[in-house]
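Q: What structure does this chain adopt?
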Amino acid sequence: MQPEEIAPFARSPIVFCRNAFIYFSPQAIRRVVNTFAALMPVPGYLCVGASESLLNVTTAFSLEELDGAFVYMKRGLDD
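A:
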């Protein structure tokens, strides 16, 4: 995927990308997540599948628990 293909979706405050990364190469995952991080508003919520992790991909999102669900949250620089 090219950044311009992702951009319309990445500008949303909540992005559901569940069980998609399991089909991507590590390089493609990094490109998509970096595009999400660059374009999503603050706060932004990235929902991935239970078997997917961004721990070795980026530090732009932190794993947070919200009402019993785990989501990756994009925070501002001061958070």
